[in-house]
Specification:
Distance between the termini: 117 Å
Largest sheet: 5 strands, parallel
Helix content: 55-70%
Low-confidence stretches: 132-143, 187-200, 424-429
Keywords: DNA-binding, Phosphoprotein, Transcription, Transcription regulation
Strand order of the largest sheet: 2-1-3-4-5
Structural class: alpha/beta
InterPro entries: CheY-like_superfamily, Homeodomain-like_sf, HTH_AraC, Sig_transdc_resp-reg_receiver, Tscrpt_reg_AraC-type_HTH
Protein name: Response regulator
Radius of gyration: 34 Å
């Protein structure tokens, strides 16, 4: 019998992984998804255990990207084939991965069943012992396997009559539900990006913790709910598990009680443990719908409800009233008028309410916070620290595992804005702070002072500093510096001690002829004429 082709999916976006898992009837085509990973390090840590024939990997991922993963796979597991997922903008990365032995690539915008299957079949031909299946020799009918059939049903495929009968015999009760648990933030396994060995050790520890939790949960349910049938759904997150439970409808209250007790008892041993229980359903034909509408929704709600150990579909908190749209125009006007306490106070209220909308869209929530940071940074572009740090903040919010974590990033940013605008940093419209600028110029006029140097000293954008001068002074930076220098030169000329050739350098002009030109422009007299006139008036 021909061996089935094992596939590992690697992508940092769970929706992409879900899309790949459910775009094909994998088993029917002679493939089996043996696992998934959120980055290259996770994938590398699982290769020894999963031993996939083919890896489908994204290119741009945190911790370890697809290019590095490909290089290490081809070095340590040369028989394993790699298929790269990419967008048009990442094609230069794809080119470099081909140098490391990539079998093929798929453009994400064209990721659909036909093209994916074609690339998989072509790649399978390269693998010794599997090529015959791809060449038209159909593998012998595999024995019925409950995990494969359930995965197919969750994907929305209808089973053949014999498959349906087999599943019903294995799951004979009249009530179903999904029970899920995870031992850490989604997509995180503790892998150390700086040391592969430490990452492997952490991954092993995570796997051991998950296995212990799984054994405790399944054992306790078997003890407290007699006759319960339970089956682990394969191919989940590395630090998570999903269980399909099958029981008599009248046993549902007992299951709820057992799950509640388990969640709170185990959370005392494993503080990061979080559990979810889907709604109950009475027919296997509802498996795909409940998975989409309850299981995946509960995972999304977890982002906004990170502290609740157990989320039960039918016992969710009351939904908050729909929020009015945030008044970004008013917020921007408050920033321009330096009304930061009012602006940030209104923002805090809105974000707090938004973070309690647990059924909200995670992407939109993160996008809103990122947009606020962009607008604030844009308004205070003269503060170089904010401009330089904004991309790191965008990335941190995008990687935040909870609404609370994302809000803390925003809070720290706003606090820093307040600090920078109320201390050493200058604020538009402040005469006292403008005086600091003018005083600095009075003290350093003899140096090769420029607008760029002054801006760097006060952590300002040069163009902003230029407009600040023209707004709050009758002359611009260069004109004001010339006023100071010619005034100091006039004092020295009146003192009558230093030669004129030396006075030009004493007040900051390296070119004597230029000094004479500027001095005459500002006083109406040449330096020598000014000195003669002064002596003539004595």
């Amino acid at each position: 019998m021909n061996q089935i082709c094992k596939v590992l999916i690697v992508d940092d976006e769970i929706l992409v992984r879900q899309g790949i898992k459910y775009v094909l009837d994998w088993e029917r085509e002679g493939f089996q998804i043996v696992g998934e990973a959120a980055n290259g390090q996770e994938a590398l840590n699982s290769l020894q255990t999963l031993q996939p024939h083919i890896i489908i990997t994204d290119i741009v991922m945190p911790v370890m990207d697809g290019e590095e993963l490909t290089r290490l796979v081809k070095r340590d597991y040369p028989a394993t084939e790699v298929i790269v997922l990419s967008s048009f903008s990442e094609f230069h990365y794809v080119r470099s991965t081909f140098q490391n032995g990539v079998a093929d690539y798929i453009l994400k915008p064209k990721l659909e069943a036909g093209s994916l299957l074609q690339v998989l079949q072509k790649t399978r031909e390269r693998i010794p012992g599997l090529g015959a299946a791809a060449a038209g020799v159909q593998p012998e009918a595999a024995p019925q396997r409950l995990d494969a059939l359930l995965s197919r049903m969750i994907s929305g495929y209808r089973l053949q009559p014999e498959g349906e009968e087999f599943v019903k015999r294995q799951l004979p009760q009249d009530c179903f539900s999904f029970l899920g648990w995870e031992t850490g933030p989604a997509g995180v396994t503790g892998a150390d990006s700086n040391a592969a060995t430490a990452g492997a050790d952490n991954a092993d520890n995570d796997a051991d913790a998950l296995a212990a939790i799984t054994a405790a949960i399944t054992g306790e349910l078997e003890r407290t709910v007699p006759g319960l049938v339970q089956f682990i759904i394969p191919g989940g997150e590395p630090n998570a598990a999903l269980l399909l439970v099958n029981l008599q409808e009248e046993q549902w209250p007992a299951l709820l009680q057992a799950v509640n007790m388990l969640a709170h008892a185990l959370a005392g041993q494993e503080p990061e443990l979080r559990m979810t229980l889907s709604r109950a359903f009475g027919s296997l034909s509802e498996v795909a719908a409940v998975y989409q509408e309850s299981v995946l929704k509960l995972r999304q709600y977890r982002f906004f409800l990170p502290d609740q150990v157990l989320l039960v579909h039918d016992e969710l908190p009351q939904r908050e009233a729909q929020l009015p749209k945030f008044n970004l125009t008013q917020f921007t006007e408050q920033l321009k008028r330096q009304q930061l306490e009012e602006a940030f106070g209104d923002l805090h209220q809105h974000v707090d309410a938004l973070s309690r909308q647990y059924d909200g869209d995670v992407f939109q929530f993160k996008s809103f916070l990122g947009n606020i940071i962009f607008n604030v940074t844009n308004q205070f572009s003269h503060l170089g620290e904010l401009e330089e740090g904004k991309y790191g903040l965008f990335r941190a919010i995008d990687e935040a595992g909870s609404a609370d974590g994302a809000v803390r990033i925003l809070d720290h940013f706003l606090a820093r804005v307040m600090e920078l605008t109320s201390s050493a940093a200058l604020t538009p419209g402040s005469n006292a702070n403008m005086a600091k600028l003018l005083q600095y110029m009075e003290e350093h006029y003899a140096e090769p002072l420029s607008l760029t140097e002054l801006a760097r000293h006060f952590h300002f954008n040069p163009s902003y500093l230029s407009s600040l001068f023209t707004t709050y002074n009758q002359e611009g930076f260069k004109e004001h510096l010339n006023t100071i220098r010619t005034g100091k030169a006039a004092e020295l000329l009146r003192a009558g001690e230093a030669p004129i050739s030396e006075i030009s350098s004493m007040v900051g002009y390296g070119d004597h002829s230029y000094f004479c030109k500027v001095f005459k422009k500002y006083t109406g007299l040449s330096p020598s004429g000014y000195r003669r006139q002064h002596y003539g008036q004595e």
